[in-house]
């Protein structure tokens, strides 16, 4: 059974930085695509950043490009999201997700393509 546990969220001022971590257990982490989704209050859960199972491909939504960096450490079964130049619009619950299929050489971007989810970590950016 795959389990994902996020950490690193918190309250930060606009312009600040946070680093989210997602520790995975069970499953085949080293070949699975991983992603960070986020859900703002009253809105749907949306894709923010993803990395292929190979680690060679990454994808970001336009609103976070140049500010967020996703990376993975297969030795530690952990995926990270480095978030810089944070804006109030980045306020959301951030969820880690793992895809089981078709994600070694690709970055799935649709919520339904991910099979396992963490419980989320809250990020609040004050203005």
Q: Can you walk me through this structure?
A:
A hairpin with a 5-residue loop joins strand 4 and strand 5. By secondary structure, the chain is mostly beta strands. The strands form 2 sheets. Strands 2, 4, 5, 6, 9, 10 and 11 form a 7-stranded mixed beta sheet that branches. A 4-stranded antiparallel beta sheet has the order 1-3-8-7, with no helix packed on it. The N and C termini lie far apart (40 Å). It has no helices and 11 strands.
Index terms:
mainly beta; seven-stranded mixed sheet; four-stranded antiparallel sheet; 0% helix
Instruction: Outline the biggest β-sheet.
Output: 7 strands, mixed
Mean pLDDT score: 96
The fraction of residues in strands falls at over 45%
Helix count from the secondary structure assignment: 0
Roughly how many Å apart are the termini? 40 Å
Q: What global shape is seen? A: globular
Helix content: under 10%
Q: What Rg, in angstroms, do the CA atoms define?
A: 13 Å
Work out the number of β strands: 11
Structural class from helices and strands?
Answer: mainly beta
Encode the helix/strand succession as letters. Answer: EEEEEEEEEEE
* Poorly predicted runs of 5 or more residues: none
Structure described in brief:
The chain is mainly β and 127 residues long.
């Amino acid at each position: 059974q795959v389990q994902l546990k996020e950490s690193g969220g918190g309250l930060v001022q606009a312009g600040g930085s946070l680093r989210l971590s997602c520790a995975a257990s069970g499953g085949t982490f080293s070949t699975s695509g991983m992603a960070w989704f986020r859900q703002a209050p009253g809105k749907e859960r949306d894709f923010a950043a993803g990395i292929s199972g190979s680690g060679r491909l990454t994808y970001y939504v336009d609103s976070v490009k140049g500010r967020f960096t996703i990376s993975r450490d297969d030795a530690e079964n952990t995926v990270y999201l480095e978030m810089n130049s944070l804006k109030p619009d980045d306020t959301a619950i951030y969820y880690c997700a793992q895809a089981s299929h078709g994600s070694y050489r690709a970055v799935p971007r649709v919520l339904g393509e991910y099979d396992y989810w963490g419980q989320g970590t809250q990020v609040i950016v004050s203005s």
